[in-house]
């Protein structure tokens, strides 16, 4: 970090030494047990996957993969340009219409990722006259959106609608936006969306819910946490979603009132200056959405798998979270133990997520399990057995 108070002598440095500081940073991460590495996944992986976010098991559903292939054959490998230039195909338009309809909202706007959708909502719906009240455990993309906004940001205590109301009541800014994940991605607990809405409404604020982990799992037929809270179509409520979890594809969307969507279309930088979502991804998401609408029991099964996983892990003596949606976490004694535990699970044929600081806001390292709705009871029992057998002491 450069200290702007102290003059810096810009001595010449050998080009090969310019990035030396990165090696020191990597050493520090290694010493803290925070090294991260990439592993390429084989197409035919024999490992049982509880690490991805394919909550409904749709990513390889024949209707989804066929729709992706058909879209690529028909429209090409990429969108060719930004949405406002050449990057909007009929598939994007249909997907937006059907997503909005499914969520009970007036309109939707598709982005190239959920991350981009969150940056768009937070930057376009705020200004220097807006106070953002953001849950302390919100996803990194919401935090980055807050940072990019030119608003004052208040980091509210986790899951505390009363604290949110207090901050809103004391604000000096004319506008306010309350922002929260619907389901917190690490522990899988749900926000009290109805109470957040009541707090926002009592103080003239808008509500933004990141429903990345709620769409396809919560609400009637999986229509999401906003619908579950009775807020579908509410004029003061906006949701962001990802197409990359329950919908087995890639991309994101903002769903909400028509005038919000129009404003984002005309002003959101991550919409305007980004190439449109690839047609194959739009086609796959649309096919998955249609499957979910035809078979709404998929959402209930994902929730049931989560309950079964949690109950069986707890019965095995492990500290599993009580799931509100389709994420179950299991506490590990520390970051190194969590990494070793996840590796031992993999060796035993089970892929699980491993979350540790700085990805966990409370400093607790965990395994994270995706309660896929397509898991059989035998697969659930097998997963629990592997996790129990490989559990670290402590
Ligand atoms: C809560 C939450 N919001 C947003 C995102 C970002 O979505 P995407 O992966 O589509 O960029 C994720 C995904 O990782 C997430 O977990």
Walk me through this protein's architecture.
It holds the Pfam family Aminotran_1_2. Pathway: Cofactor biosynthesis; biotin biosynthesis. This protein has 394 residues and is an alpha/beta fold. The chain has two domains: 110 residues, Aspartate Aminotransferase, domain 1 (Alpha-Beta Complex); 233 residues, Type I PLP-dependent aspartate aminotransferase-like (Major domain) (Aspartate Aminotransferase, domain 2, 3-Layer(aba) Sandwich), CATH 3.40.640. It contains 14 helices and eleven strands. Strands 2-8-7-6-5-3-4 form a seven-stranded mixed beta sheet, sandwiched between helices. A four-stranded mixed beta sheet has the order 1-10-11-9. α8 links the parallel β6 and β7. α3 runs parallel beside α11. The longest helix is centred in the last third of the chain and has 19 residues. The chain is globular. The chain starts with 19 loop residues before the first helix and ends with a helix. The relative contact order is 0.16. The mean pLDDT is 95. It binds pyridoxal-5'-phosphate. Pyridoxal-5'-phosphate binds next to α4.
């Amino acid at each position: 970090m450069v200290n702007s108070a102290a003059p810096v002598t810009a001595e010449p440095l050998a080009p090969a030494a310019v990035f030396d500081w990165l090696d020191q940073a990597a050493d520090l991460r290694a010493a803290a047990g925070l090294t991260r590495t990439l592993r390429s996944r084989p197409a035919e992986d024999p490992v049982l996957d509880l690490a991805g976010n394919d909550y409904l098991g749709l990513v390889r559903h024949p209707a989804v993969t066929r729709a992706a292939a058909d879209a690529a054959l028909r429209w090409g490998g990429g969108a060719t340009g930004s949405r406002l230039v050449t990057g909007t195909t009929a598939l994007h338009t249909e997907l937006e219409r059907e997503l909005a309809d499914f969520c009970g909202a007036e309109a939707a706007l598709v982005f190239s990722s959920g991350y981009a959708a969150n940056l768009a909502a937070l930057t376009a719906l705020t200004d220097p006259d807006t106070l953002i009240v953001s849950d302390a455990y919100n996803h990194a993309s919401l935090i980055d959106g807050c940072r990019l906004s030119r608003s004052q940001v208040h980091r509210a205590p986790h899951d505390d609608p009363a604290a949110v109301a207090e901050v809103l009541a004391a604000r000096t800014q004319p506008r306010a936006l309350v922002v929260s994940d619907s389901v917190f991605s690490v522990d899988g607990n749900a926000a009290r969306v109805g109470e957040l809405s009541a707090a926002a409404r009592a103080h003239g604020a808008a509500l933004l819910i990141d429903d990345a982990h709620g769409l396809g799992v919560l609400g009637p037929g999986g229509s999401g946490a906003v619908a579950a809270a009775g807020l579908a179509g509410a004029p003061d409520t906006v949701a962001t979603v990802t197409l990359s979890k329950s919908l087995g594809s890639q991309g994101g969307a903002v769903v909400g009132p028509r005038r919000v969507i129009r404003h984002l279309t005309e002003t959101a930088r991550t919409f305007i200056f980004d190439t449109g979502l690839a047609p194959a991804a739009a086609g796959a998401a649309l096919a998955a959405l249609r499957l979910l609408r035809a078979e709404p029991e998929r959402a209930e099964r994902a929730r049931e798998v989560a309950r079964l996983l949690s109950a069986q892990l707890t019965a095995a003596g492990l500290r599993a979270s009580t799931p509100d949606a389709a994420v179950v976490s299991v506490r590990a004694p520390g970051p190194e133990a969590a990494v070793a535990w996840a590796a031992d699970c993999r060796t035993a044929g089970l892929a699980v997520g491993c979350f540790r600081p700085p990805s966990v806001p409370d400093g607790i390292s965990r395994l994270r399990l995706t309660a896929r709705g397509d898991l059989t009871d035998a697969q659930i029992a097998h997963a629990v057995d592997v996790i129990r057998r490989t559990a670290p002491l402590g």
